[in-house]
C-alpha cells in the first residue's frame, strides 16, 4: 500500500464512526489549546514583570535613610530624620570609580495651579544625573542648566500628565505655574513613560532642581543642610553591582562614623536581587503551566490509545481478511498508525485554532497579559503529530502481530 492508499483507508475507517473519532480527538484539542493559552499567558506575564524590573533598573542601587535609635534606645522611623546628604553623593561619585551616575533627591506632594486649571501632584527635587538614572528624556523645551542647580532658580520640568492637565495641547514652555504658593517657570516637559511597575502614573510628576526644592518647597520642614531623602546610582557594568554595593556601604559607614557591630543608619536596595527573584518566580510559573499543559496532552494521547485498542478489537476479522489477501504486518501497522495520527492531527489543528482565539480573548477581556508566539504554535502542531505517533504505535503494533487464521475465526 502506498501513502495515498493508507490515507484513504484511514479516512474511510474514521468516517465509519465519526462521532467516536471526534470525541477521541477532543482530548488532543483541549491539550493543544491549553498549551497555547497557558504558555501565552506565562510569556505575557514574564514580559510584564520584565517591564516592571527594567523600569526599576537592573544596574541600579537605591540608598535611603535607615531607622536609627532615639533617646533611651527607642527605635525611630526612617522618615523622622535624614541621615543622607549631598556630601555622601559627592563622596560616592569621587571615590567609587565603577559608579556611572549618582544623584540625590527630595520628594513631596503639592497642588499645582495654572489659570483655572489645577491638580494635586508629586514633585521631586533632583540633581543632574537623576534624569539619566531613571531614563527620563526631554520632550520639549530644555533641561536644567548648571546655574539652575546651584542658584535655586524657580524653574520646573513637567511630566506629561501634569502638562496635559494644566495646558492641554499646549507644551506650556515659558509659562508660570504655582506649586503651592510659589511661582515657577516651565522650562521643559518630559517624554511620557506610562504606568510604572507598581501601577503608579510615572508622568504625574514635576521636576525641580534639588536646591530649589529644598529652599522653596520644603523650607518649613527645617531640613539639615544638604539633606536628601534618597540617593540613586547606576553602574556601567551589571557585574560590578555587588562589588559597588559593598564599597558604597563601607564608604557611608566611614562617613557616618558607624562603629563595627553598630546598625547602619541607611538602607541599600540592590535591584539585581529583585531581578533574581523575578527570574525564579517566572521560571517556576512557566514550569507549572507547562506541566499542566503536558498532562492535558498525555490525557488526550491516552484517549487515542484507548480508542485505537478498542478499534483493533472490533476489527480483528477485518485485519484477518486483509492479511489473507496479501497485506503484510507493516501494511496493517501503517494503517492503524495513520488513523491515530490523523485523529491527533485533526485535533491539533482545531486545538491550535481554539488556543489562539482563547489566548486573544483572555488578553482582551481578562486581566492577564498575553503574548502569542509563533514558535509555540508550531511546537503545539508538532506535539499533536508526536502524540498520535507515540500513543498510536502500540495499538498498530498489536494489530500487525495478529495471526490471520485466528483473526478470521473471530465472530
Question: What would you note in describing this structure?
Answer:
55% of the residues lie in helices and 18% in strands. It has 13 helices and 12 strands. It has a 6-stranded mixed β-barrel. Strands 2-10 form a two-stranded antiparallel ribbon. A hairpin with a 2-residue loop joins β3 and β4. It starts with a helix and ends with a helix.
Descriptive key words:
411 residues, alpha+beta, six-stranded mixed barrel, two-stranded antiparallel ribbon, elongated, ABC3_permease_C, cell membrane, transmembrane, transmembrane helix
Helices and strands in order, then pairings?
Layout: H1 3-16, H2 18-56, E1 60-65, E2 84-85, H3 86-95, E3 99-114, E4 117-126, H4 130-134, E5 138-141, H5 146-151, E6 155-158, H6 160-167, E7 176-179, E8 182-190, E9 205-209, H7 210-217, E10 227-228, E11 230-235, H8 241-255, E12 266-270, H9 271-314, H10 316-324, H11 329-365, H12 374-400, H13 404-409
Main location: membrane
InterPro entries: ABC3_permease_C, MacB_PCD, Macrolide_Exporter_MacB
Family: Belongs to the ABC-4 integral membrane protein family.
Amino acid at each position: 500500500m502506498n501513502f495515498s492508499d493508507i490515507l484513504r483507508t484511514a479516512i474511510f475507517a474514521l468516517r465509519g464512526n465519526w462521532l467516536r473519532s471526534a470525541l477521541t480527538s477532543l482530548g488532543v484539542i483541549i491539550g493543544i489549546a491549553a498549551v497555547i493559552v497557558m504558555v501565552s499567558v506565562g510569556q505575557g506575564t514574564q514580559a510584564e514583570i520584565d517591564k516592571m524590573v527594567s523600569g526599576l533598573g537592573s544596574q541600579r542601587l537605591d540608598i535611603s535613610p535607615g531607622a536609627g535609635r532615639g533617646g533611651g534606645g527607642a527605635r525611630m522611623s526612617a522618615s523622622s530624620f535624614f541621615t543622607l546628604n549631598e556630601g555622601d553623593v559627592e563622596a560616592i561619585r569621587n571615590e567609587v570609580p565603577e559608579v556611572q551616575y549618582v544623584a540625590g533627591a527630595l520628594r513631596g506632594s503639592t497642588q499645582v495651579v495654572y489659570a483655572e486649571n489645577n491638580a494635586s501632584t508629586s514633585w521631586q527635587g533632583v540633581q543632574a544625573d537623576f534624569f539619566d538614572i531613571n531614563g527620563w528624556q526631554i520632550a520639549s523645551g530644555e533641561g536644567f542648566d548648571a546655574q539652575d542647580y546651584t542658584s535655586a532658580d524657580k524653574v520646573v520640568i513637567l511630566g506629561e500628565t501634569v502638562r496635559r492637565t494644566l495646558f492641554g495641547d499646549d507644551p506650556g514652555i515659558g509659562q508660570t505655574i504655582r506649586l503651592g504658593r510659589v511661582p515657577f517657570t516651565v522650562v521643559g516637559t518630559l517624554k511620557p513613560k506610562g504606568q510604572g511597575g507598581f501601577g503608579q502614573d510615572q508622568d504625574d510628576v514635576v521636576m525641580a532642581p534639588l536646591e530649589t526644592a529644598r529652599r522653596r518647597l520644603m523650607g518649613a520642614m527645617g531640613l539639615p543642610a544638604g539633606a536628601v531623602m534618597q540617593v540613586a546610582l547606576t553602574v556601567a557594568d551589571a557585574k560590578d553591582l555587588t562589588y559597588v554595593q559593598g564599597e558604597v556601604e563601607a564608604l557611608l559607614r566611614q562617613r557616618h562614623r558607624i562603629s563595627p557591630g553598630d546598625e547602619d543608619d541607611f538602607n541599600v536596595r540592590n535591584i539585581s536581587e529583585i531581578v533574581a527573584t523575578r527570574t525564579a518566580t517566572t521560571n517556576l510559573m512557566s514550569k507549572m503551566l507547562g506541566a499542566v499543559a503536558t498532562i492535558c496532552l498525555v490525557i488526550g494521547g491516552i484517549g487515542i490509545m484507548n480508542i485505537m485498542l478498542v478499534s483493533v478489537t472490533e476489527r480483528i476479522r477485518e485485519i484477518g481478511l486483509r492479511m489473507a489477501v496479501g497485506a503484510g504486518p507493516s501494511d496493517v501497522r501503517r494503517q492503524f498508525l495513520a488513523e491515530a495520527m490523523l485523529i491527533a492531527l485533526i485535533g491539533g489543528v482545531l486545538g491550535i485554532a481554539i488556543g489562539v482565539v482563547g489566548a486573544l480573548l483572555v488578553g482582551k477581556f481578562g486581566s492577564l497579559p498575553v503574548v502569542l508566539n509563533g514558535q509555540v504554535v508550531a511546537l503545539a502542531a508538532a506535539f499533536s503529530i508526536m502524540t498520535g505517533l507515540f500513543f498510536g504505535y502500540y495499538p498498530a503494533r498489536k494489530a500487525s502481530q495478529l495471526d490471520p487464521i485466528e483473526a478470521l475465526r473471530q465472530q
